[in-house]
Write a structure and sequence with these properties.
280 residues, rod-shaped, binds zinc ion, alpha/beta
Amino acid sequence: MRSSFDDTGQEDRPVLRFIGRNLSLLAFLALSTGVMLAAYFYFSPASGVAEVVAAGNAAGALSAPFAKPVPPKPILQRLAQSPGPIRIGIISGHKGNDSGAVCEDGLTEAEVVENIAVRVVSALQARGISADLLSEFDPRLEGYVATGLVSIHADSCDNINDLATGFKIAGSGLTDSSQLSICVEDAYRQATQLSYHANTITPHMTDYHAFRQLAAGVPGIILEVGFLNRDRQLLEQQPDLLAGAITEGIGCYLDQIRGGVTIAQSAAPPAAAPPEGDGQ
Ligand SMILES: [Zn+2]
């Protein structure tokens, strides 16, 4: 009987038997559930608090903004992606068209600048750089594709006043030509010790016909190498010096295009070189 009771008891109440066997485990599960629920309700914010936190964050109270305004990076030159073969165009001012400025004794701007332009072209070619000597209205200028264009001119032979000395450079308004402009200006100033004559740059220079003829994206500058009157001795008798300076400036520009370095980095070392003492 007893065994049968036990048997039936065990058969009728398997759940109780299971609980009896695993009492300590079940007690642990119940306790831990209780602790977790308590922890959940203890740390949960009251309703509405989450919205308050979000609103405060939106106003920037809880964290620093992670989207700082960053100024756009200036475009220094547009050939970095696909430089192509290096080619430089040199316009010999007025060549093939007119004589340009003329001095009383017949010296012309066209002959003075051609003397310089020819030397620049051969110096570039001697460095292995493709260079074209172009006349003022050269047919090749229409859609001319190059790494850069430099047009060489000189200023008036009239004895205007004491200020009529120095050189000046105007860059194309259609393409960013600042790198070419800065390189040539630095090299020319250092070599010639001429002052930069910024205040006589005319729209005639900035709206130069060749700038409009060049292929899109080709940087171009027009360089007035000096005044035929007050700077005559330098212009007429030292074409090698002037051409060397212009070639140097173009070399600086090409280095920057090929090296992709900024103007400040590459211009700094040469600027600190010997001419500093002479300039004082
Ligand atoms: Zn001219």
